[in-house]
Amino acid sequence: MKKNWQDRFKDVESLAGNYQKHPINLAYKPKLSKPWQPSSIWKLFYRQIQAFNFSKSCKPDVHVFALENENKKDARLGQRIFLVTTYTELWFYYRNYRKSLMHCYEVIPEGAVCHLYFDLEFVKQTNPERDGKQMVAILIQYVCQKLGELYRVQCSVRHVLNLDSSTHEKFSRHLVFHLPNVAFRNNIHVGNFIRTIMQPVTEILEKGRGRIDQENAGGDGGALPPTNTRCVPVTPEKRKPLGKDVNRNLSSKRIKCASWEKSEERISDPDLSLFMVKDKYGADQVFVDLGVYTKNRNFRLYGSSKLGKNTSFQIAEDNQFTPKPQDNVSADELLFLSSLVSNVR
Prior knowledge:
The protein has 345 residues and is α+β, with helices and mostly antiparallel strands. It has helices spanning 5-21, 48-56, 87-96, 132-151, 187-197, 199-212, 331-338, and strands at residues 43-45, 63-70, 78-85, 104-108, 116-123, 160-164, 170-177, 182-184, 231-233, 276-278, 284-286, 297-300, 314-315.
């Protein structure tokens, strides 16, 4: 016999109550598919400080990235939003959804231990005689020489990840130094080190500007004050002595390096005028961008381009760096992880 509508209504109510008491599944929580991958954290913020505050509240090892999006009112202007996620999850979406993540930047946290890094560039039209590839090779050699003299850290071009984003108009490189067992205390200390070793070039610039300004610089040649730059060993079991005052507590993974100490053998410096270039207006400037060593600096990722541009950072043809293999990590992901300035393990 057919049920009347009242009986059917009661059946529906009964089923609804049963499903409420015994749901088919819990609330959906996305996660990466591999058992060794972390749980999913993917949260966007419009303010950088909010992203950092959230990241500090997370138990997993999360990081802050900046995503550059077009401004709806003016496509020429970029608007940055800030993403909090893990390296693993970012890479998962970064390689699969390139269109939505093609303008991505690492935010180098204030005070974070980091690798030595460089942003190099010059306009080709105003520097027709400059050979960018040769300049990079000489710079790497010079920096390795200074690391040996000041820190007793031995490195070579094989420790330097070399990324290229050059165009017909502009030469552009990023260098990330993976020093054996050592990193810098933070990117402010990186900037102090680089400004010190580039001081001969900046002195030339300051003297030139002083002559133009009728020696208003006071005759000091723009000399930089002594800096107190420090580095930290990242694997204390294998570290080498870095100075006289190194903290000898072997249980600490991050130990202050002594003040700079000259080694007994010194190689003569190259002609640093090679690193003098002209900007698009013809004014002299340094090949090395000295403005990228500020707190919470946004540093463009491997594989990303600037908003409105099509050229992304890729492995340079003269790169000699090869990351060490890791279980369950592809070669391309290793390069991506190696390009992150604050990814110090």
